[in-house]
Amino acid sequence: MERRAALVTGAASGIGRAIAQRLEADGLAVLAVDLAPDPDGPGDPFTADLTTGEGNRAAVEAAVERYGRLDVVVPNAGVQHIAPVEEFSEQWWRSLIELLLTSPFLLASHAWQALGESGQGRFIAVASVHGLVASPYKAAYVSAKHGLLGLVKVLALEGAEHGIAATAVCPGYVRTPLVEDQIGAQARTHGIDERDVLEQVILQPHAIKQLIEPSEVAEVVSMLTRSTGAAFTGSPVVMDMGWSAR
Ligand SMILES: NC(=O)c1ccc[n+]([C@@H]2O[C@H](COP(=O)([O-])OP(=O)(O)OC[C@H]3O[C@@H](n4cnc5c(N)ncnc54)[C@H](O)[C@@H]3O)[C@@H](O)[C@H]2O)c1
């Protein structure tokens, strides 16, 4: 059988890099899309700014042209911005919504035909436990991730007759630069020392006080690409160290 093909966004770092690595090890061809792709990283590097319509279109077209097919789309690229709502700028709001919500929609829309032709199409969005619960100072991120779970439900319903399954993976805190970069901002906002941020703020909502490893998220994504993945269509797959159990 011809090699299945995947498109992973935000593939130069953190969770996206681990997913690209894992899917490549599973035998898939992987287009590793990023604003600043790593030429030495997993997959075939492709540069795109996913806050633009053109960037999302170009990424899907590149995958279909290069591999002649597209079976798995993993919208994962993300950024965070932390500020109280009255100080949260419109510019930050718009750019987070573009990247975290509009990009997954555009990727689905452009890839829909190819995913249908796959026979086992998979749209696997890396959402967050913040698609289910909120934290203060993250207005745009929490809103976008809740919206992403809504998008996945619609895609699951529309995709069923085309053999496409759509799922949102919802991790708690994962050991990546996105989390490490929040430590300084969280320390300033909460008025506490940087070294207390991990225990008192970041891991505070986890029942198990551990960061999740990027490879653990990648393992779940890998499972969802296979036939078992169909049963999870329309659902959040929550891996949050007990956060949302409260
Ligand atoms: N790290 C966590 O604790 C955690 C928890 C739950 C969900 N998530 C989600 O996982 C995803 C990946 O997060 P991460 O922690 O691996 O982040 P990361 O910062 O390590 O990697 C994000 C990648 O996205 C890329 N990117 C940013 N803006 C882009 C743009 N405009 N166009 C193209 N690429 C762009 C960056 O260059 C980077 O390589 C995000 O959607 C995030 O919301 C992360």
Description:
This protein has 246 residues and is an alpha/beta fold. It folds into 2 domains: 5-173 and 213-238, Rossmann fold; 176-211, no CATH class. Helix content is 45%, strand content 15%. The chain contains 8 helices and 7 strands; from the N terminus they run E-H-E-E-H-E-H-E-H-E-H-H-H-H-E. The chain has a 7-stranded parallel sheet, with helices on both faces. Helix 1 (14-25) links the parallel strand 1 and strand 2. Helix 3 packs parallel to helix 4 (139-159) and helix 6 (182-190) packs across helix 7 (194-202). The longest helix is centred in the middle third of the chain and has 29 residues, at 90-118. The chain is globular. It binds nicotinamide-adenine-dinucleotide. Residues 9-10, 12-16, 34-36, 48-51, 76-79, 99, 126, 128, 171, 173-174, 176-179 line the site of nicotinamide-adenine-dinucleotide.
